[in-house]
Each structure stands twice: as structure tokens, then as C-alpha cells.
Amino acid sequence: MKTRFLHFADCHLGYKQYNNKERYNDFARAFLDVINRALAEEVDFVILAGDLFQKRAIDALTLRQAVQGLRRLQEAGIPCIAVEGNHERAYYQDFMGWMDFLALEKLLILISPPFEEGKPVLTPAGKKHRNVGYVEPVAGVRVYGLPYLGASTLTAINAYAQVLAEQPADDVEYAIFVAHAGVQGVLSDEAGGLSYRQWSVLHPHVDYLALGHIHKPFEFEDWIFNPGSPETCSVSEAAWQDRGYYLVDVDTERDPKHTARLKANSRRAFYRLTLAVDHFGSPEELETHAAEFLRRKAQDLHVDRLSAKERPVVELQLTGVLAFDRTALAIDRLEALMQETFHPLHAMVKNHTRATEYAVDVEEGMSRPQLERQVIMDLLDRDRRFQGKSAAWAKVAISLKQLALSGVAPQAILDEVADAAKRLTTNDQ
């Protein structure tokens, strides 16, 4: 028996990322691109492992996007077999969710077996398109599955394995299990998911474990497959360029029975850049270096080759220890530099810098005026712009404080600041 299918997940239709309309459209474009790939590859069926939608309550346009893609499959006679993800689960008070609606419209077959006495009831789909136990899209292939169950996943998987061991499968040459759940350890900061050992109870009964939920692509032992997100839901996903969908060719006369190829679909470019700030003594020095850094990166990434419709999303991460006051860091100016060099759809600066330690050493017995002067001098010495002139600048700061406390007019204080800055800057030259 030979067959070909496409496996994808985590489309997140309806996500208006950065509150940007073009990003909303990007998620639809990525979804439709995968659908077009399925049609071009002439697959026999499609597996959708959850999170077609970004949220439970979708608008009419988002529903239209889903219908548009699924109808193309329907018209081509390609069944789409799906499970419900955590993002699109119906509210508890609702009778049905939008995935159920799509199933009632016969645009997909939704696997969600009822459980009786703790065990799944595996009834065949037949003419039903929702609440089914399994689907046989082509002769010899059987597709089982589970919707997102959160903390109950392990219990359900163990019960499923027990039922599969008892289930007659004489005519099944190839079995697929679809679930919206992860595998422990794939992402270090991702809680939950089952270990490979916990998933392995299905291995004697299942040839291909089709997962969704984790946006990073991964596979284990040519058995567990997770394609990752077709569109970029977070800038951290930019590191995983080879993600989108699996194209799987099955030939039960061979060993192994399948060849699964991970393929990337079309999506908007995301760039995450990192700039260490440790060696810059002033905001001006940092800005000058950042301008050159961004220009060079834009050149290396061939941004000039991108069309207006392909404008990227760019994130600049600032790391290290600032040698000047954190409040002097001009984030808006850095974002303007990103606009000038990358012409992005969206630009953002993430400030992960650390301030110099501001603990001040003072001598015992200092008077209050002495303590105040020492604290100001010590803080100024931590900022490279004032090093060597901290005593003079501390004197200015204390003088300005006294003027303010004396009720001097604001303009007079500003004039004093301008005069002091001119005098001290002139002495530097």
C-alpha cells in the first residue's frame, strides 16, 4: 500500500501580531501556502494537529480565511483530519466551538472520541465529521487522535494504548496518531508535555505520531514528528527557519514504512540581532556603533532585495553592562536607525542591559553634606561621561539643589545648568 499525506499544525489564524493588520494577513498567507503545497503535491489526505485558530472567539474574516483554505482541499477530494488545540477549545458553556462548526460543514473531520469509564470509544468516522474515534482516509490507513487535554493527556494516552491493544486491526497496514501536545525537553522553558517514554506506550500500535502545540520543529526515532509553526508567532521562532509542514510518503512494502520530509513554507522574514553595549562610554558612542552595526547586518541579510510586501520584522537585543546612566539610553533613536536601515514592517528594541552596580562606599562619621557629596561623586564616577570631573559636577548638582530649595525661578536654574555645562565642557577641550 502506498499513500502520501501532509502534516501541519499551529496556524494561529486571526493573530493580529503587534496589532498590525499585515501580520494578521501573514498568518492567513502561511496557512493558504501550506494548503497550496498539499494540492501541488497531490496528497491523499492532510493531518492538522491543532491550533488552526489563535483564539476561541474569532471574527468573520478569520473564519472566512479558514473556510477558503479548507474548501480548496474539499473540492480536490482531499480530506483534512484534525484535532482541537488549546487555543481554539470551545468555552465550557458553549455547546460547540468553531472547529466543530467546520466539521459540521464537512470541511474537516474532527477526531474527538468520547470516553466511557476512562477509556476512549473508538467508533469509525463513517459519514460523521465530528466526535469520531478514528478515520480511514484511504484503504489500509487508520488515523486516531486526541484533542488537547492538558494535564489529563498522560492518563488519556495510557487508556488509548490499552484500547488499541484490544482493537482489531487486521486491515490496518499503517496507523497514525494525532495529538496536540509536546515532548518534554524540546524547549528548556516549556513546561508540561510527555516524555518520550510516556509516549512510547503507543509505539506498538502506531507508525506515525503526528504532534502539534510546540512551535519548534522536532522528531524522535523516525516516529514522533512535530512540524513547527507555519508563521512566526514569536521572534524567538526566527531561529527555526526549517519549519512548516511534513510531506510523508508511505510504502508499507518497505522498511521503514515512511519517508517524512520537513519542509518550510513561505513566511515573512524575522531577524533577531544582538548588540553588546559594554564598550561604549556614552549614548552617542553607542548610537554611532549601532548605526554601523545595523547597516552591516542589513547588507549581510540582503534586505535591499526584499520587496515592499516582504518587509521584515526586526528585533534588536541590547545586552551587557551600560557604562552610563540607563535613562540616557535613547531607545526611540535606535528604533529610528532600524527603520532607516531595514525599512521593516515592525521594529523593536529589547533592553536586556544591566546597570553598573551603584553601591556606594562611605566613611563612618561623615556629616550629611559630606555624605551627599560623596554619593553624587561616586555615582558620577560610574558614568564614563563624567569620570575625572566628578567633583566639579557634584558641586554643580549640589548648587542646583540649593537654588531649587531657595525658590529660584526655573529659568535661572536652567541658565545655571547651561553655564556649568559650557564651563566644564570647555575645560575638557
Secondary-structure topology with pairs:
Elements: E1 2-8, H1 21-40, E2 45-48, H2 60-75, E3 80-82, H3 98-104, E4 109-110, E5 115-116, E6 119-120, E7 134-135, E8 141-146, H4 153-166, E9 174-180, H5 196-199, E10 208-212, E11 218-220, E12 224-226, E13 244-251, E14 258-264, E15 270-276, H6 283-300, E16 313-319, H7 331-342, E17 346-351, H8 368-381, H9 390-405, H10 410-428
Parallel strand pairs: 1-2, 2-3, 3-4, 8-9, 9-10, 10-12, 15-16, 16-17
Antiparallel strand pairs: 1-13, 5-6, 7-8, 11-12, 13-14
Helix pairs in contact: 1-2, 6-7, 8-9, 9-10
Which features characterize this protein?
elongated, 429 residues, Purple Acid Phosphatase, chain A, domain 2, 33% helix, 10 helices, 3 domains, single chain, alpha/beta
